[in-house]
Recover the amino acids of this structure.
């Protein structure tokens, strides 16, 4: 199993550009989440999904859209990039099986918005 | 909403010294998890605590969950250079399964 994969690993955008961060998991996990990590701020939840077709907002959803058309994929879209969105983005998946919601993280995407 | 505070933000120790990081939640948690992130890496799950007053050990690491299920701690005995990284606690409120609130993390530096 590849686990959780994310592409791209690095990205530089200009203010106002749009892009999609890709996330995929092959563990058949129901739950998927997007976090951003900024120095001193820990991991903040952007959006999450409890299954295909179901998404909800996290702590910092503004400026981001998500959709979950399949169990495996959970892309994160930046509609109009802003310098404040410069961050490291992590996708994670988890499952209710085994009575644990352990998060499995992808390797991250380092995004710079100029 | 639920808030999870973690202290200290930074900790510098000499190799062989002990290290402790503390986590406090504004609300009662159904469980608390601990993650480690090596520099340049992604968070990796260490352990989950579920029961009030629970104590778990992994070699030199000791994890505790408070009696009121609102606080937790991670203690490392005799740190090694391989312990370097950021340690995060993450709490689950129970009603939002799969939705965790992370603490700010403690960055541990170990000097040889």
């Amino acid at each position: 199993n590849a686990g959780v994969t994310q592409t791209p690993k690095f990205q530089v955008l200009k203010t106002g550009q749009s892009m999609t961060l890709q996330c995929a998991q092959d563990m058949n996990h129901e739950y998927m989440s997007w976090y951003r990590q900024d120095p001193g701020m820990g991991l903040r939840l952007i959006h999450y999904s409890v299954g295909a077709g179901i998404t909800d907002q996290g702590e910092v959803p503004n400026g981001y859209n998500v959709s979950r058309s399949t169990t495996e994929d959970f892309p994160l879209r930046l509609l109009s990039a802003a310098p404040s969105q410069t961050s490291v983005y992590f996708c994670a998946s988890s499952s209710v099986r085994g009575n644990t919601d352990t998060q499995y993280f992808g390797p991250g995407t380092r995004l710079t918005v100029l | 909403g639920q808030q999870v505070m973690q202290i200290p933000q930074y900790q510098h120790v000499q190799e062989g010294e002990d290290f402790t990081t503390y986590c406090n939640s504004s609300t009662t948690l159904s469980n608390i998890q601990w993650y480690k992130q090596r520099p340049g890496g992604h968070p990796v799950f260490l352990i989950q605590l579920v029961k009030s007053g629970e104590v778990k050990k992994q070699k030199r690491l000791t994890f505790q969950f408070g009696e009121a299920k609102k606080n937790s701690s991670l203690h490392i005995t005799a740190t090694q250079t391989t312990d370097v990284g950021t340690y995060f606690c993450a709490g689950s409120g129970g009603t939002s399964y799969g939705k965790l609130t992370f603490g700010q993390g403690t960055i541990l530096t170990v000097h040889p």
